[in-house]
Every structure is written in structure tokens, then in C-alpha cells.
Amino acid sequence: MKIIMLGAPGAGKGTQAKKIAAKYQIPHISTGDIFRANIKNGTELGKQAKTYMDQGLLVPDELVVNLVVDRVNQEDCKNGYVLDGFPRTIPQAEALDRALEALGQKVDYAINVEVPDENIVNRMSGRRACVGCGATYHVEYAPTKVENVCDVCGADLILREDDQPETVLKRLGVYHEQTQPLIQYYTEKHVLKEVDGTVDMEAVFAVIVEILGA
Ligand code: AP5
Ligand code: ZN
């Protein structure tokens, strides 16, 4: 099962992708997480990506495409995967299709998690990320047991640098311009599934499970 998560920044793609990966036992591949890990480890890729991410801009396609194509060709992706944050532009989607075609495969589902712009800034300003393991929380909707301490690994929580309100607005603009056209792209391929992302996380997941099958 090859699944793509679509949706605005903060729509809940990562939250749902983790749940899908756990239930269906397939890898969760988040390009945002891969870049953040590279930034944390001080790699060359991380240095390059950071300059774009901090401004709320997309990292250039050439830095992303090969990374994802290599990843989906790995052994653990044989039975499928859930891509979170990729593709984000039409050229990325076309590159993915070409890579899959070469393997005789295709995208099975493109799940679009729909949340209106008005809700996004609130979602992002309440999001907290663990500096240790990258787990994601929300001060209101997904709080930790102890304030600002990760439930999983005990490390501190931070507000992601690109979650400052000004950067969030920039990311939303970039989303509408560069990523939203993918909805049409995957509609034409007959794999698009629309999901209301404004209800609580479990309710969103229940709808996704109905689509994917139990
Ligand atoms: P990335 O990390 O992919 O950021 P994003 O797409 O902007 O998505 P987010 O991680 O911000 O949000 P999400 O939809 O996963 O929401 P979440 O589940 O956390 O990318 C970051 C940057 O990397 C990009 O800006 C770009 O620069 C670069 N990049 C990455 N991929 C790239 C690519 N392919 N090409 C070019 N550049 C790329 O939820 C948000 C919050 O809401 C959380 O606190 C959560 O707890 C809460 N929440 C979730 N669901 C619900 C719900 N149903 N109800 C209430 N609260 C909820
Ligand atoms: Zn943690």
C-alpha cells in the first residue's frame, strides 16, 4: 500500500501518517523529519535545507527527489509506505511517478487532510516538538503528562523554528501556490481521497481506516 499524505502545514499529516504506519506496519517517511534530523546532525544537506526551511520556503526539488526515490527503493518499503511531506510540487510528483513506474508500481492513495487556513495558525502555535526523539504534541489537543517534558523520552519540548506565526503564514502561501495543485494531479489519477481534518485526531483516523480498509 503506497500512500501519500497531502494537506496544508499543520493539517495533521504527520499525526495521521504515524498512526497509519503503526496500524498497517509500513514505514513512515517524512521529508520534514529527514531534514530536521540532518540539521540536528549538522550534515551538508541539513545546512542547505535549513536556509529554506527557516524562511518557510520549500527546499529545492533536486535536494528532495533523489533522497525519497532512494528511500522508497529500500527493502523495508517493499510492502508499501506512507509519504508525509512529499511530493510537494508537480515536478516532485512526476519524479515519484517515474520512479514507481520503473518498478511497475503506482501510488494507491493520496489522502488530503483538509483544514481551513483559519485553524492552521492556532494548530501550529500550540504544537510542541521533542528535541530528543521528534515526537509531536499540542498544548491543548495532545498535551504531555508533565508540562514541556516528552512522554516518550523525557527530553524537553520546543516550538519549531518554522512555527512562528509569521513563518506559518509564509508556509501557507507557499502551500497554496506550489502544493495545492497536487490535489488536481491526484484527482486525475483517481487516487485522491478527501478527509475532514478539523475533527479530533481519532475521528480523522477512523475515516482514513475506512478508506484504507481495516
Ligand atoms: P514538514 O515537516 O513536512 O512541515 P509541514 O508540511 O509544513 O507539515 P507540519 O509538520 O508542519 O504539519 P503536519 O501536517 O504534519 O501536522 P501535525 O501532524 O504535526 O516540512 C517542513 C519544511 O521542510 C517545509 O516547510 C520545507 O521547507 C521542507 N520540506 C519538507 N518536505 C519538502 C519537500 N518535499 N519539498 C521541499 N521542501 C520540503 O499537526 C500539527 C499540530 O496540530 C500538532 O501539534 C498536532 O498535535 C495537532 N493536531 C494534529 N491533528 C489534530 C486534530 N485532528 N485536532 C487537533 N489538533 C491536531
Ligand atoms: Zn522525545
Automatic annotation (TrEMBL):
Binding-site residues, AMP: 31, 36, 57-59, 85-88, 92, 160, 171
Primary location class: cytoplasm
Cellular-component GO terms for this entry: cytoplasm
Keyword Nucleotidyltransferase: no
Residue ranges of domain Adenylate kinase active site lid in the record: 127-162
Catalytic activity: AMP + ATP = 2 ADP
Region of interest (LID), ranges: 126-163
Keyword annotations of the record: ATP-binding, Cytoplasm, Kinase, Metal-binding, Nucleotide biosynthesis, Nucleotide-binding, Transferase, Zinc
Chain residues that bind ATP: 10-15, 127, 136-137, 199
Pathways involved: Purine metabolism; AMP biosynthesis via salvage pathway; AMP from ADP: step 1/1
InterPro entries on file: Adenyl_kin_sub, Adenylat/UMP-CMP_kin, Adenylat_kinase_CS, Adenylate_kinase_lid-dom, P-loop_NTPase
Domain of life: Bacteria
Cell compartment(s), UniProt: Cytoplasm
Residue span of region NMP: 30-59
E.C. no: 2.7.4.3
A single GO BP: AMP salvage
UniProt GO MF annotations: AMP kinase activity; ATP binding; zinc ion binding
Binding residues annotated for Zn(2+), in chain numbering: 130, 133, 150, 153
Free-text note on domains in this protein's UniProt record: Consists of three domains, a large central CORE domain and two small peripheral domains, NMPbind and LID, which undergo movements during catalysis. The LID domain closes over the site of phosphoryl transfer upon ATP binding. Assembling and dissambling the active center during each catalytic cycle provides an effective means to prevent ATP hydrolysis. Some bacteria have evolved a zinc-coordinating structure that stabilizes the LID domain.
Function of the protein: Catalyzes the reversible transfer of the terminal phosphate group between ATP and AMP. Plays an important role in cellular energy homeostasis and in adenine nucleotide metabolism.
Subunit structure: Monomer.
Family membership noted in the UniProt record: Belongs to the adenylate kinase family.
Protein name per UniProt: Adenylate kinase
Protein's organism: Faecalimonas umbilicata
